[in-house]
């Protein structure tokens, strides 16, 4: 039960961190800080994105999904954390972004598989998110506008996941490890 509690809290935390991460693109310029400021570099390239991905490991473990999809979820987290650190270290985006987009294909697999097992809003939002996130990765030099849809969908999906995990904390007694539970809304 403690694992499920930490998972739904982590899902809610990730939703908040992804909202803050998205909002930074709009609010940091309003602060008037120069783009090469160490504060801006830390927020944009390191602290927020790494934290948002680090806290998701318990969510991947607890959310019902087939083992291969869960492995894809873990792979996404490792790749995104790696590319966030690469960005923080000043690696050119032409080197780390293709790797990141490859990781997004793994994210899309996990999100789609976990969402397919759900009903209602979690399924709809998850499948749209997976399609956008994974689909964009397969378009060479695709217009960034396609990926913008993932920005709001990702925190909404994690908030829904948190709600599902919180509601089902007494019903997820090990079934998340086998991936046998059907999640309902």
Give an account of the 3D structure.
With 185 residues, the protein is mainly alpha-helical. The chain has one domain (2-171). 77% of the residues lie in helices and 0% in strands. The longest helix is centred in the first third of the chain and has 30 residues, at 2-31. The protein starts with a helix and ends in a 7-residue tail after the last helix.
Derived from helix and strand composition plus strand pairing, the structural class reads mainly alpha
Order of helices and strands: HHHHHHHHH
Helix content: over 70%
Distance between the termini: 20 Å
The coarse silhouette is globular
Instruction: Tell how many strands the DSSP assignment holds.
Output: 0
Low-pLDDT stretches: 169-185
Radius of gyration: 16 Å
Averaged pLDDT, please? 83
Number of DSSP helical runs? 9
Please outline the major beta sheet: none
Provide the β-strand percentage band: under 5%
Structurally, the number of domains stands at 1
Summarize the structure.
With 185 residues, the protein is mostly helical. It has 9 helices and no strands.
How would you describe this structure in keywords?
185 residues
Question: Layout of SSEs?
Answer:
Elements: H1 2-31, H2 38-54, H3 57-62, H4 67-88, H5 93-116, H6 120-137, H7 144-147, H8 150-167, H9 175-178
Helix pairs in contact: 1-2, 1-8, 2-4, 4-5, 5-6, 6-8
């Amino acid at each position: 039960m403690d694992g499920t509690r930490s998972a739904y809290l982590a899902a809610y935390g990730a939703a908040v961190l992804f909202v803050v991460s998205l909002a930074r693109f709009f609010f940091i310029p309003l602060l008037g800080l120069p783009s090469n400021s160490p504060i801006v570099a830390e927020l944009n390239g390191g602290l927020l994105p790494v934290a948002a991905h680090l806290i998701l490991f318990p969510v991947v473990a607890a959310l019902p999904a087939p083992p291969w999809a869960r492995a894809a979820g873990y792979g996404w987290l490792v790749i995104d954390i790696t590319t966030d650190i690469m960005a923080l270290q000043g690696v050119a985006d032409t080197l780390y972004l293709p790797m990141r987009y490859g990781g997004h294909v793994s994210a899309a697999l996990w999100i789609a598989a976990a969402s397919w097992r759900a009903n209602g809003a979690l399924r709809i939002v998850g499948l749209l998110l997976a399609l956008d996130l994974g689909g964009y990765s397969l378009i060479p030099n695709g217009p960034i506008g396609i990926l913008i849809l993932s920005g709001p969908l990702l925190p909404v999906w994690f908030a829904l996941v948190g709600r599902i995990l919180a509601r089902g904390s007494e019903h997820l007694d090990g079934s998340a490890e086998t991936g046998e539970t059907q999640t309902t809304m």
